[in-house]
Amino acid sequence: MSAEDDVDELIKQFTLAQAELMKGNSEPAKEMCSHRQDVTLANPLGPVVHGWEQVAAATDQGASQFRDGEYLGVEDISKYVTPELAYIVRIERAKAKVGGQSVVSPVTLRATMIMRPEDGVWKIVHRHADPITTARPAASVIQQ
User: Fold this and answer.
1) Which of 70, 101, 116, 140 makes an SS bond possible with 136, Cβ 3.0 to 4.6 Å?
2) pLDDT for 102-122, tens place per residue?
3) CA 141 to CA 67: how far, in whole Å?
């Protein structure tokens, strides 16, 4: 298979893993990630973390905030693949009970993932996701 095919398969599997994360199960998502010390994660629930131990802990903590969820789909914005590195930018849509709420709510995230092959298997080495999916005024970046 080509690098593009391998990356497409990783993205497909990660999408399935995200569906599990919306149910509170972090294990499939963690399997898709690099376990090396240069892996990073910037999830919408906490600060940027660095290194496999911190990424694993942040992924577990993030998954613990979701339950009874369903992944609704993605809108891929951009993807680029080379034999050594790839990235994808996408909008992810789901619904879940979030943070102890009893009602299912929509969850929409803007996400960027960077991937590379490690020992012949493509892994995610960086993921950034946040809830910004529409234009906002410049003042929205000011911290109070």
Assistant:
1) 140
2) 999 999 999 999 999 999 999
3) 30
